[in-house]
Design goal:
35% helix, alpha/beta, 7-stranded parallel β-sheet, Rossmann fold, disordered N terminus, DEAD/DEAH_box_helicase_dom, binds adenosine-5'-triphosphate, single chain, 16 helices
């Protein structure tokens, strides 16, 4: 088994316990024996009564994903999944779905772009009833962008086939920047079956008693480590997990590609009663936390040469679609009235770069409409160069991206992993994707530390 190598670097935002305790092979209150398999899964063994096999009688083997879900997920949802192109389960879906269908709480911990979203959505479709007008599943996401993406996939799967009489699943996106007035009346008149929400919008609805969670059967917290690390969100998150709903009435799923000190996190989940005691940690490919199709490179240059180095890289790589990550502007620079580094870079590329890809900007300081417009531009373009801050580092799924450039080095290994994970997002493709960091000689040490923590090798490019 491999455990988080970044353990010493990260505080434990999810716990207020002062005495660390690391359970080895027995978790307190767990039922059954604990064992690990090749995916480094830690779980209490399932007894035959844990999994309801009564429904799984007819097997249509037309696709392996259907075979895995047959008897749990309604046929028309599986049909939609196949139409969208989901026919073969990814590793994480293979590992997590049997656990999820057994009713266990679960921490899904797997590489970026490995298909965690589809895994928890299929569970939700196996549980919620379309004809019931009540909130039965809640997915909490950190950003509007990720929320829009999850909503899109949920609605694709929920879409009613024209020859089916039955009511379709209703999916509500309750996201920051949306018009909450319309949502209020929707929630009052006919509550949707599935709600996808950012914590701030969700808290508003809960505090005003417009949204009630007493009928909720599945609670998903996506990008869980990010949520617990956000000082603005953590108290609302803990309130949601402990006060607004009871663990006994819901199945709780946490998902992320990075869960620092994951064993401690699982322990705290049980101690704090965020999950039931037999929660399962599905950890796929722990020794290779980034997709293996990623090829990591770095270029050393002086601080003032970064623009010309990036230009050189863009000319030699000629990427059709790439993301260029730029660090956030410091408060000091903002106060001095300087232009943000993202804007300066876009201006530079507009005048110097001769490629035909569309130049697009995505950063926190843009309003929600501008952010949505940027993502629409990307999706409609033949190729793009997205200049972005770390707002684009989590959850954004742009499968056409083949190159990532770290114009500024990310602040830690977890951020490197999520930035790098914006490429290599075609689960069954062999194509190589590139992550290139432009660094100064002094930053080589920091990059080396990321390599050690994330078990990858970065090759130097010499111009
Ligand atoms: N079974 C499947 N077959 C084909 N494509 C899939 C399958 N499952 C997921 N995908 C595709 O893989 C891509 C990544 O999936 P997803 O966004 O769920 O990854 P993730 O694990 O949540 O990544 P991240 O941690 O970066 O958010 C998406 O474009 C999705 O459509």
């Amino acid at each position: 088994m491999a455990f988080s190598s970044a353990a010493h670097l990260h505080p434990l935002p999810w716990t207020s316990l002062t005495k660390p305790h690391y359970p080895s092979f027995s978790l307190p209150n767990c039922t059954g024996s604990i064992f690990c398999n090749r995916t480094n899964r830690i779980f209490a063994s399932l007894s035959s009564t844990d999994v309801d096999q009564s429904d799984a009688v007819t097997k249509d083997t037309s696709s392996p994903l259907r075979e895995l879900c047959q008897g749990y997920v309604p046929d028309h949802v599986l049909q939609r999944a196949e139409e969208v192109g989901y026919r073969v389960p990814t590793n994480v879906q293979n590992e997590a779905l049997p656990v999820l269908f057994s009713g266990r709480d679960c921490v899904i911990h797997a590489q970026t772009g490995s298909g965690k979203t589809l895994a928890y959505l299929l569970l939700i479709f196996s549980v919620v009833q379309a004809q019931r007008s009540a909130v039965q599943a809640l997915i909490v996401v950190p950003t509007r962008e990720l929320g829009m993406q999850v909503t899109k996939v949920a609605r694709l799967l929920a879409a009613k086939s024209p020859d089916l009489e039955q009511k379709s699943y209703t999916v509500m996106a309750l996201l920051d920047g949306g018009t909450l007035r319309r949502h209020k009346s929707w929630l009052k008149v006919e509550p949707p079956a599935i709600v996808i929400a950012t914590l701030r919008s969700l808290s508003q609805m809960l505090d005003k008693h417009i949204l009630k969670l007493d009928t909720m059967r599945v609670l998903v917290i996506d990008e869980v480590d990010f949520m617990f690390n956000s000082s603005e969100e953590v108290s609302s998150l803990k309130k949601l997990l402990t006060i607004h709903s009871s663990i006994n009435n819901r199945q709780t799923i946490f998902a992320s590609a990075s869960i620092p000190q994951h064993r401690r996190f699982v322990y705290d989940c049980i101690q704090q009663k965020w999950t039931k005691a037999d929660v399962v940690h599905v950890h796929v490919n722990p020794v290779n936390p980034m997709p293996s199709c990623l090829y990591h490179r770095f270029v050393i240059c002086g601080k003032r040469e970064r623009h010309s180095t990036l230009l050189h890289l863009l000319q030699s790589d000629a990427p059709q679609s790439a993301i260029i990550f730029v660090g956030e502007q410091s408060e000091k620079s903002k106060k001095a009235g300087n232009s943000p580094p993202t804007t300066l870079l876009i201006e530079f590329l507009k005048t110097s770069h001769k490629g035909c890809s569309e130049l697009v900007l995505l950063e926190e300081d843009m309003n929600f409409n501008q952010r949505a417009a940027s993502l629409t531009d990307i999706k409609q373009s033949e190729g793009y160069l997205l200049v972005a801050t770390d707002i684009a580092a989590r959850g954004v799924d742009l499968p056409e991206t083949t190159h990532i450039y770290n114009f500024d080095l990310p602040k830690d290994a977890v951020n490197y992993l999520h930035r790098a994970g914006r490429t290599g997002r075609k689960p069954f493709s062999d194509s190589k994707c590139y992550v290139t960091s432009i660094i100064t000689a002094e930053e080589r040490f920091a990059l080396q530390r990321f390599e050690n923590e994330l078990f990858f090798h970065c090759q130097e490019l010499l111009f």
